[in-house]
Amino acid sequence: MRKLCGSFAVVLSLVVLTVGVDAQKKAESSDAEYIAEALSAAPKAVGKDATIVRMDESGKMTTIRQGKNGFTCMVVSAEKMCADANSMAFFDAWMKHQAPPDKLGVTYMLAGDDGASNTDPYATAKTADNHWVVTGPHLMVVGPGTKTLGLASGADADPSGPYMMWADTPYEHAMIPVGPPKSTSKTASNSNGAAKN
111 and which of 14, 40, 69, 183 could share a cystine (Cβ 3.0–4.6 Å)? Predict the structure, then answer.
């Protein structure tokens, strides 16, 4: 009986050890996948030395990888971004409904976005009147100096060229597309199967 109990204890220990190792590997894999996703927002030269953070539902950030170039990459609501310190301060002010800092900042979103209201900084979904715009890979330039760039600032932005987002709000910033928007629907086909132009 003692031998059976001893064998059971060894097997149980191995199971616990294996489960613990599997959980650690899953967490590491999850972090590795998250890091790769976050880094898709930035040029490789920026991403290689950027800090990677994960934000929880309350807005609290946890550092996954410490960087050394002043940029922070993350995924927020499926949107991938890599922002310098001034942009991080700008977005922190936006989240807290406070006045943004008077500093120029740069944010990379080279994976594009899934859309945002061009007029309402706090809209979370497209409505009939909030001028939703989907922008492909782009840079955001924040700070009061962007207002002097002379970019289009109308409500119905053309995401194929530079424009001002959230114009006439404290959070106005420049959107500088560097590629076409993400496709939101499959290419239409004509009756013989060829794509329409």
Answer: 40
The Cβ of residue 194 has, within 10 Å, a number of other Cβ atoms equal to: 9
Average pLDDT, the chain: 82
By the 8 A CB rule, do 80 and 41 touch?
Answer: yes
Closest by alpha carbon to 138, among 165, 102, 168? Answer: 165
CA gyration radius for the chain? 23
Within a domain: residue 48? yes
Q: Please, how many CA atoms are within 13 Å of residue 70, restricted to the half-sphere of its CB?
A: 8
pTM for this entry: 0.77
How far apart are alpha carbons 2 and 6 in whole angstroms?
Answer: 6
Cβ–Cβ < 8 Å for 116, 165: yes
Q: Is residue 108 part of a domain?
A: yes
Q: Say how many domains are in the chain.
A: 1
Ranges of beta strands (E only) in the chain are 51-55, 61-65, 71-76, 79-84, 105-109, 116-117, 132-133, 138-142, 163-165, 173-177
- Tell me the mean pLDDT in the region 23-32: 60
In a domain, 32, yes or no: no
55: nearest Cα among 77, 88, 31, 30 = 77
